[in-house]
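Many introductory courses stop at the sequence. We go one step further.
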Amino acid sequence: MNNSPSKANKKIPNEKEIKGSFIKNENVKLNENLKESEIRYRRLFETAKDGILILDFETGSILDANPFIVKTIDLPLEEILGKKLWEIGLFSNKEESERAFIELKTMGYIRFEDMPIQRRDGKIIEVEFISNVYLESKTKVIQCNVRDITERIKTETALKISEQNLKNQNTEYANLNKEYSRLNEELSKNISRIQHINNDLIISKEKAVESDKLKSAFLANMSHEIRTPMNAISGFSELLLQTGLTDGDISRYVHIINASSQHLLSIISDIMDISKIEAGQFSVESESVDINKLMGELFDTYEKIVDLKKLRLIYSPEKPNNLIQLTTDGNRIKQIICNLLNNAIKFTNKGEINFGYRLKENSMEFFVKDNGIGIALEDQSLIFTRFSQIASSKKQLNSGNGLGLSISKALVEKLGGTIAVHSKPGTGSSFIFTIPFLN
């Protein structure tokens, strides 16, 4: 006989019992999941590389702290729990901490990007502080995350310093580049000035060499010019000592000695004048000059001299019968015209010499014209140069000391006027100088 219960006697669970069993199983699973979640959170809490503090929502007291924050602020966990944030150095004072706590409870979130913390050993570290409110088992709690940004601050500071240094370097480079451009421009100008100076030095050297040659030629010629009248004076003076001379011989010898003395005196006067001009000690007088009287005296003097050379002297005053007065230095005017007349006589072998004056609006124009050998255009700029003469050939200088025209130019300019020459070879020369009216 089979004693096992039959299928008819087996109890079948009803719907309520099935539902209760399912809920029980789900609660078991939920509890297990919550335990696993709590374990995972705790593991993360303990191993986090940021400091974590859990605060009581109502009081702000610290309920928990992870190892990283313990290490960061250098306080044991037991000295942290139950304390307020300001008591562990997260805020500089109680008032500041309480203000932040009120803001956190009101807003549910606060953040300080750069907060200094003073450790127990007095060392200051920089942290980023973020705090927010959340629910845990239907209870509000506060989680504070503290991240050490000391190295980041150092890096940012170093970057800022590097950036500033770079800006300074760029500014310095720009200034140096500007200074370089200025110096380069100045150098270019200096090089250009040096080139001009070198060119001027070359020209000056050439002029100095030419002047030295002219002075050497002048001294040689001057020696000859002085020796000629001196020889005449000496020679004919000795002849006067001889006996048996006729009155005609004596008169002729005395005339030659007198003429030679005047010639020598003129040479010495020219040398004295050119010396004064070069020394800057040249002066002129100012007086009222009767021009017609002065020019008439010159005509009387030079008419005989010109006649000896078989030339004709023409005097051409613009207003010979009027009283023409000019405030100037009469002796210098006479000296200028004498030099020009002597020059004309020297270079004119036949024909005539014409001199006179013309009245201009603000000046008086004097002229001396001849139909002598003339002067080439390229030589006209040289004739007023000291110690210079125009060669009648390329190898030989004309007679004379070469000072007359140079002295005349200096005299005219000292009197406030100008002098010029118009000439062509073979057709004669025309020298014109003007003296301004001062009265």
